[in-house]
Write a structure and sequence with these properties.
By secondary structure, the chain is α/β, with parallel strands linked by helices. It contains 17 helices and 20 strands. The N and C termini lie far apart (about 60 Å).
């Protein structure tokens, strides 16, 4: 599409929206901006575009059908629901609605490695990228990991591979995206506050392979029945990874090693120096090693990365040991599947802190693990009563008002050797800016607890009332 002089509406002015405005203004488009925030706030964000010709036209404080109907093309940011009434109306009028990924796909000539799944996307994407870098490959890392893909187009750079974390929201607004290597890690219930059914959400994830042909490679999780079932439906080549079985061609665990077996490769990678906790991170490592090798990473680069990679904050991150009790921050565990993986990684008794804004999923998959491993459950946020109704009878459960209260309660219930795990199974937006802010509050509270105990031990027995 020739973008010059086209009336293009950008909906949502986060990082992706600003990147779209930057690129489209460079192309000479007539830009319209629509966002729910007030117009003065939007003008501050767009201060660098004051001299843009033609000038930007801004709609603040909401989205209206007449404003949307002026556009020749609508570009929607990932956080904007596609069932927004003005979007439904412009589609009815025949006005195309694209996401960033669709525009990127039409312009990018670099091979793309795309990682999606309910859980583990960010870690796997970063692992894959580091493996390629350690092998001497030049990459651009972007997508849902925090850097808009359009920045690659704007920069004019040419790398060997674009490594992209891709969300279901991005896939929903792209019909023609096709990665050279696509990795689908898992599909469990999530975002059911945005999708009409779990099947609709699963279909969204599977659409990563919508345009796959014989030249593109798919990497699938053998241990996830839903993901595994996609294999026979796709054109080969298709590769699997598993921590339980030995699929071939693919990757599997064998005596604390990752073994890769493909048509041309049979090699093993040691995990004795792999520092990320949890069984889910073994799955992430399997997927990343397989994907990286398919993209031409060296065996030395893969092994070096497995030994050196430190992971990200708020993803089953150790925070402190206090009087022999181990505190872990898994604030990024925003859905039930993530909490299942986190609990599976501990053999010790767990005091679990969970809750937040409900996303419409079923908490049932947690029941057996709570009965088996969780000696106490502290629930916070809007979802605490719903979660208590489903999970509360299974263990010692308390409903509290704040995360701080939950931390102190869990500490008082714990004994040396126990784990206090903060893994919410919910989004953060009822009480916090985002999952990172929520994790920071948890970590700050744990550190404050440690200081109080240290101070009190100088004076006598420690006790704090809740």
């Amino acid at each position: 599409m020739d973008l010059k002089n086209k009336r293009i509406l950008v909906v949502g002015l986060g990082k992706t929206g600003v990147a779209l405005v930057t690129f489209l203004s460079q192309q000479g488009a007539h830009l319209l901006i629509s966002d729910t925030r007030p117009e003065p706030e939007l003008k501050k964000i767009l201060k660098d575009f004051r001299e843009t010709t033609p000038p930007l036209v801004i709609e603040g404080g909401g989205h209206s059908i007449p404003f949307f109907s002026q556009a020749d093309l609508v570009m929607v940011s990932p956080g904007v629901p596609l069932d927004l009434p003005p979007l439904l109306e412009v589609r009815r009028q025949g006005i195309p609605v694209w996401g960033e990924l669709e525009l990127f796909a039409s312009l990018c000539r670099t091979p793309v490695a795309a990682v999606t799944g309910t859980n583990g996307k960010t870690t796997t994407t970063a692992l894959l990228n580091d493996m390629l870098l350690a092998s001497g490959r030049h990459t651009f890392l972007g997508g849902n990991i925090g850097r808009p893909l359009m920045e690659y187009i704007i920069s004019g750079q040419t790398q060997d591979v674009v490594v992209a974390e891709i969300s279901s929201f991005q896939l929903d607004s792209s019909l023609h995206f096709v990665p050279q290597v696509g990795l689908l890690l898992n599909i469990t219930e999530d975002h059911l506050d945005r999708y009409p059914s779990f099947q609709a959400y699963a279909d969204s994830k599977a659409s990563l392979f919508r345009n796959k042909g014989k030249k593109e490679m798919a990497v699938l999780n053998w241990d996830d029945p839903l993901v595994r079932s996609l294999g026979p439906k796709l054109q080969e080549p298709v590769y699997f990874f598993s921590r339980r079985d030995r699929p071939s061609p693919g990757a599997f665990l064998d005596n604390n090693q990752i073994t890769l077996e493909t048509e041309t490769i049979k090699e093993a990678y040691r995990l004795d120096g792999f520092s990320l906790p949890g069984v889910h991170n073994l799955e992430n490592a399997l997927a990343a090693a397989l994907g990286a090798r398919l993209l031409g990473a060296s065996s030395q680069g893969i092994q070096k990365t497995l030994w050196s990679f430190k992971g990200f904050g708020h993803r089953l991150e150790w925070v402190a040991d206090i009087k022999g009790i181990h505190f872990y921050d898994d604030s990024k565990g925003t859905n039930v599947g993530a909490v299942v993986k986190a609990l599976e990684g501990f053999s010790q008794p767990v005091l679990l802190i969970a809750g937040g804004r409900d996303k419409g999923g079923d908490y049932g998959p947690l029941k057996s693990l709570i009965q088996e491993k969780v000696k106490g459950l502290a629930l916070i946020g809007e979802a605490r009563q719903v979660m208590s109704d489903q999970l509360g009878p299974l263990t010692n459960t308390v409903l509290v008002q704040t995360l701080e209260e939950a931390v102190y309660w869990a500490f008082q219930q714990a004994q040396a050797g126990d784990v206090v795990l903060f893994s919410p199974a919910c989004s953060s937006f009822d009480m916090f800016r985002d999952y990172a802010h929520r994790g920071e509050v948890f970590q700050d509270t744990v550190r404050q607890l440690a200081r109080e105990i240290q101070d009190q031990e100088k004076k006598g027995p420690w006790c704090r009332k809740i």
